[in-house]
Amino acid sequence: MLDFGPFYGGNLDALWDRLSTGVERPVHLLWTDSGASRAAMGLLSFERVERVLREAVEQDTAWSLKERFTYALA
Q: How far apart are the C-alpha atoms of 36 and 15, rounded to whole Å?
């Protein structure tokens, strides 16, 4: 579980901060019912969140980390 605690805001910058440096790896996030989330959030908001997830994956890959952040949509 990704605990954001009282130090993180409720925005995409906070999500990026947590995923990029604030969580011990390896971490695999499974976004269950992502289709329902997409419908509820709207496509643009959903894509913004997914972009942050993708950028965290790309950063770990670029840094050649052995243990990485990964995610999947279900």
A: 20
